[in-house]
Design a protein that fits this description.
Adenine-n6-DNA-methyltransferase TaqI, Chain A, domain 2; 9 helices; 4-stranded antiparallel β-sheet
Length: 389
């Protein structure tokens, strides 16, 4: 069938009278979940056309499908309204809503939509529902849809649970850090670094395969990495690099552009056993006066320090960004070195668990993404898949 045979785009303008609502923008949906549940005043939306949606609808961004800005609505949405940049997609009686969601987030559909978007000019190339509706898709009978959706939803639930565990583990580490950090004395970051270096990519740009080259588009935070935007360099180029090769324990800092100050960390094979950074990322390594890369990561995650870095980067009249001297000049608090070493021992098990969990989630996501086309084609049946709990 065509996707348009099994679903429709709903564009009902929000007309409810309550004082407060929850506005969902494209930035508030990611990989199946709505990430924003904060109320705003209804009067702030006057004059703007927003869309109503309901439980079992799917919110799907019109911009850059590869960004995976979509969500399945599994809650009562009476207080919610969606931006006009989000399609509200609703299943008809030929398809189960959860199965439709699995289809729409499959690599096969996203890759086709991304190719369409890339043919457009402009900073934010968009797709339309008409284009989505024109795509061919195999739709099995309802009983098979139910089994497939339930199976793949098990993967989604397990991935979500692991991600929540990682968030909780980092919150614990952050709480331990806060108790220590604010007892420190004022200093500057440069006094505690042995290395601060950026990477590079070869002339002609990144490749479609090879050694992963980490850019700002990949960095989210420790344990969260966007593999869908992966870019690569050749093994030969990688082996000739004098700087920018990522080691376990390295702290990664996005140094220019709109998201200056985003920070992540490499550890125990996360995000890759072997990788490098490009010219938009810094690697930071501490000396023996700050004997903890975990302390450095959490230090850079503090809102006040991120704001300082962003202010420095944004103060330039030309291209916004951070240079090495500005990062080194960041004013920070530094506790006693023995206390930092003790902190390092306390949080290391937490960070190692986060890295292991993140790698497990990647394995589960890859397995899930290979199952849908095989299940829909009949190559596999639901009864063939065991061990999903």
């Amino acid at each position: 069938m065509k996707l348009g045979d099994v679903c429709e785009s709903v564009s009902l303008t929000f007309r409810r009278q309550q004082d407060k609502i929850i506005l969902i923008n494209t930035s508030d949906v990611l990989d199946g979940k709505v990430t924003n549940h904060e109320y705003v005043l209804n009067k702030n939306l006057r004059g703007q056309f927003k869309k109503s949606f309901q439980q079992q609808d799917i919110l799907y961004s019109e911009i850059r499908p590869k960004n995976r800005r979509f969500a399945y609505i599994d809650f009562n949405a009476d207080d919610y309204v969606a931006s006009t940049k989000l399609m509200v997609i609703r299943a008809n009686d030929k398809i189960l809503p959860q199965f439709l969601f699995q289809v729409l987030k499959s690599d096969e559909i996203i890759d086709q939509l991304q190719l369409l978007a890339e043919t457009r000019s402009g900073t934010f190339p968009q797709i339309t529902f008409s284009e989505l509706a024109s795509l061919d898709v195999r739709i099995p009978p309802i009983p098979e849809q139910k089994g497939i959706a339930a199976t793949l939803s098990c993967f989604d639930e397990k991935i979500s649970n692991i991600a929540e565990k990682n968030h909780h583990l980092e919150q614990i580490a952050q709480a331990i850090f806060n108790e220590l950090y604010f007892t420190g004395d004022l200093s500057i970051l440069g006094d505690y670094l042995t290395d601060i270096e950026s990477g590079s990519r070869p002339k002609g740009g990144a490749l479609l395969s090879g050694i992963p080259s980490i850019g700002a588009e990949n960095i989210e935070r420790f344990g969260v990495y966007d593999y869908s935007k992966e870019k690569y360099i050749s093994l030969d180029f990688f082996q000739r690099l004098q700087r920018g090769v990522v080691k376990s324990g390295d702290v990664l800092l996005y140094k220019d552009g709109a998201y200056t100050g985003k920070t992540s960390m490499a550890l125990g094979g996360f995000p890759h056993q072997q990788c490098a950074i490009n010219e938009h990322v810094f690697i930071l390594r501490t000396n023996n006066k700050m004997p903890s890369q975990y302390f450095l990561y959490l230090l850079l995650r503090l809102d006040e320090n991120r704001e300082k870095l962003f202010t420095m980067a944004s103060s330039k009249a030309a291209q916004p960004g951070l240079n090495q001297n500005e990062v080194k000049a960041l004013q920070i608090l530094i506790p006693n070195v023995k206390l930092i070493a003790k902190f390092n021992n306390e949080v290391e098990p937490l960070f190692k668990q986060i890295a292991n969990n993140a790698l497990e989630n990647r394995r589960l996501a890859e397995l899930r993404d290979t199952l849908l086309p095989k299940l829909m084609s009949g190559e596999l049946s639901v009864s063939d898949i065991v061990g999903v709990k």
